Amino acid sequence: MTVAKEDVRALAQAAREASRALAIASTEQKDAALRAMARHLRKAAPTLLAANAEDVAAARTAGKNAAFLDRLLLDTGRLESMARAVEAVADLKDPVGEVTETWKRPNGLKVAKVRLPLGVVLMIYESRPNVTSDAAALCLKSGNAVLLRGGSESARSNQAIAEALSAGLQEAGLPAHSVQVVPAGERESLLELLKLEGLIDLCIPRGGEGLIRFVAENARIPVVKHYQGVCHVYVHEAADLDMATRITVNAKASRPGVCNAAECLLVDRGVAEQFLPEVGRALVDKKVELRGCPTTVAVLTRAGVPVTPATEGDYGHEFLDLILAVRVVKDLDAALGHIARYGSEHTEAIVTEDEGVAGRFTREVTASGVMWNASTRFNDGGELGLGAEIGISTSRLHAFGPMGLRELTSQKYVVHGKGQVR
Amino acid sequence: MTVAKEDVRALAQAAREASRALAIASTEQKDAALRAMARHLRKAAPTLLAANAEDVAAARTAGKNAAFLDRLLLDTGRLESMARAVEAVADLKDPVGEVTETWKRPNGLKVAKVRLPLGVVLMIYESRPNVTSDAAALCLKSGNAVLLRGGSESARSNQAIAEALSAGLQEAGLPAHSVQVVPAGERESLLELLKLEGLIDLCIPRGGEGLIRFVAENARIPVVKHYQGVCHVYVHEAADLDMATRITVNAKASRPGVCNAAECLLVDRGVAEQFLPEVGRALVDKKVELRGCPTTVAVLTRAGVPVTPATEGDYGHEFLDLILAVRVVKDLDAALGHIARYGSEHTEAIVTEDEGVAGRFTREVTASGVMWNASTRFNDGGELGLGAEIGISTSRLHAFGPMGLRELTSQKYVVHGKGQVR
Fold first, then answer.
1. What does residue B249 show for φ and ψ, rounded to 5 degrees?
2. What separation in angstroms does the CA of A102 have from each of A98, B92, B308?
3. C-alpha angle A269/A272/A276, rounded to 5°?
4. Which of B247, B358, B366 sits opposite A421 (nearest CB)?
5. Which of B23, B410, B419 sits opposite A246 (nearest CB)?
6. B positions 254-283 inside 8 Å of A (CB)
7. Distance CA A406, CA A70 (A)
8. Neighbouring residues of A6: CB distance < 8 A, sequence distance ≥ 6
9. What is the residue-wise DSSP string for B89-108?
10. What ranges do the domains of chain A cover?
């Protein structure tokens, strides 16, 4: 599908207009729209599953692997989950209009900070069709219009989902252009979108490194990156070692393909001899391949735990797989140095019973989530209690870490006076 | 002065390294550095004023006008104000480490949101040398390294100021590279800086439209724009008309050259006949030139108040001068429509005694500052109580409106558990 420059601009202009109506829509109206969107998703099941089946067949013909096909696939169960996720957003608190702070000035002016929507959000993602409805619901509730640009492999599914969502929006009296799917598959139309400064207020790219680099290098619109997670678990010498094993195994093996999974284990020299065999066996039981520094290799080999030597490229690498780099460090400072050099500012964990050490770690580590005696896997919007997330930002600007409804808003100063002048 | 690409990158890399030390510097250390910086500014007065005199002489030779030369000029009084402003930042609360929120999850995890610095800030500005020390102080206190790129006309002054600031930093044991002046005057070196994604975390351009457009069109690093203020005062039919006159005159005439000055007055039809002659006379007394819609022209002409017809180009225009566009509108909706079309999302004011109308106005207007019965001139960091500001953002992302110390920080999630896993 070829999309002319003018068409891309027209989509964004329609979104901008819709955003004006959305910004002042009441909570009741937005929630009614979300519930209607969920109803229409269920109602459109036959059309939607047929469109998805075409996408899956085309991807299979194109030789995509099983993991890819699984991410792309919709069935009645997954469709129902999508509809429920949309309804769950209706149950979340509306961030728009929330007064986050108030104060009074010596001259009597009353100042309030009040949340307002960002405007128009451009969401760029890959092949999971559920992102289409999840992102649409979160943007709608936060009063933002959204342009959804999914992967070309899920184009038919996304179009069918967007049609169902638009039907719900119109039923509730909100602009159909509040949610629009941008035709996927061409870098030209994406390039055009990325240049629409003044029409698009925020771009959220979610996906592989190539996609994010492309967006970062070409965007003239504000981008909040959802980049890789090179997360570490640091086991300090004053750690409860059983706890450290549980946390390490969970951080690495509970879901290795996600960004908050651990990719590297750092172990204090003082406890390496005791801890490494214990955690090594637990990890190998979970089919984790270990790549260790020379000390790690020596200790594990003596203990009969399989391990290969780590190369420099194994540090700072996001495996997204059952592979873990392991390094023995001298102390807290060495651990902090390793993390500053190799971490991606996503999630970092320390296991220790020493409060002072934990204090330094949580203060000095720059990462969106810093965990003390908890798994890296908790750096997630749902787990932290944000309700739902549109992604996890690895940029410090605007939002750092899981982005929920609030992170899709800005704040304005509302000032109430009695005629004050300067 | 020609700066090679590699040199620009080296400056940014030095800033990045300095930012790591600054991020964990104590409040005491940062405040000691600020006080030392102020001392060194005073001590360097002879060198500094000599450098400034060269800048002023060169600018005069280049034919710059009196207003420009005045902005560029430093004297002992202005230098003392700069030193005091740096000391005043030492007295502000350190935002780094501030816990903004805490909560507990059902699984027992304790979550805190904690402020951390953004990293490296690039400040791009024009000819006022005081911005150099103001921005350096605010960035330092918020734990950020800063690259200062001022106008070429103030290059000698800025370099001398930066040297004094660096001496203060070193005296307090903080990296001298925390504050660096980037050689000005070439678009190539600016272009290079704007591409240093990953090394610079935030770019703040402050200046004319041309500069801001250039930055917005070329930056691959995050930009928070400090763009124009096309601010309106809307006098509703239920306004206290004496208050409305006071606010309008103050908003327009107290300092017409700043971004929170009013550029357009909107008057409800129901009070136009009574209000326009009154406010018109008060404005003309302050030497304000009025450009009105046909109704305004008719009413003012009958009342003997000088007025010329407004052209379409007068609406949405930032005069930064003693000129005011005036338009009579049908009602609140017409006023909201005008502001949505012509406003720049900077500051908008309503004068009314009707709380319901004020509620709709403050809710529905998208602007960083929305004033009810107060002058637009209050949308300012000092006036709102932020202590000091690095500028006024007109972008909704990250910070909207005056940016103080807090707006130079991000927040991370710090999670404390007892071994929880997912």
1. -65, -45
2. 11, 19, 42
3. 155
4. B247
5. B419
6. 254
7. 31
8. none
9. HHTSPP-TT-EEEEEE-TTS
10. 5-227+399-416, 231-384
Helix (H, G, I), strand (E, B) or coil at A364: helix
Shortest alpha-carbon distance between residue B59 and chain A (Å): 33
Q: Do A372 and B114 touch (CB under 8 A)?
A: no
**In which element (H, E) is residue B348 found?**
strand B347-351
Superfamily of structural domain B231-384: Aldehyde Dehydrogenase; Chain A, domain 2 (3.40.309.10)
Residues 302-341 of B with CB under 8 A from A: 340
Each residue's pLDDT, cut to its tens digit, for chain B (422 residues) gives 445 677 899 999 999 999 999 999 999 999 999 999 999 999 999 999 999 999 999 999 999 998 889 989 999 999 999 999 999 999 999 999 999 999 999 999 999 999 999 999 999 998 889 999 999 999 999 999 999 999 999 999 999 999 999 999 999 999 999 999 998 767 788 899 999 988 999 999 988 888 888 898 888 888 888 888 999 999 999 999 999 999 999 999 999 988 999 999 999 999 999 999 999 999 999 999 999 999 999 999 999 999 999 999 999 999 999 999 999 999 999 999 999 999 999 999 999 999 999 999 999 999 999 999 999 999 999 999 998 889 899 989 999 999 999 999 999 999 999 999 99
Residues of B within 8 A of A370 (CB-CB) are 412-415
B13 touches chain A (CB under 8 A): no
Q: Which of A38, A32, A39 is nearest to A173 (CA)?
A: A32
For residue A379 the two structure tokens come to 């750096």
Q: Are B338 and B359 in contact (CB under 8 A)?
A: no
Domain A5-227+399-416 class in CATH:
alpha beta
Residue of A nearest to B254 (CA): A422
Give me the DSSP letters along B166-188.
HHHHHHTTS-GGGEEEPP-S-HH
For the record, the structure tokens of A117 come out as 């929507």
Of A223, A250, A384, the CB nearest to B111: A384
Contact of A122 with chain B, judged by CB distance below 8 Å, is answered with: no
Number of A to B CB contacts under 8 A, please give it. 204
- The interface predicted TM-score of the complex, written ipTM, equals 0.93
Element (H, E) at A50: helix A45-61
Q: In which element (H, E) is residue A116 found?
A: strand A110-117
Q: Which residues of chain A are within 8 Å of residue B371 when distances are taken between CB atoms?
A: 415, 417
> Within 13 Å, how many C-alpha atoms sit on residue A340's CB side?
19
- A382: tokens are 């749902």
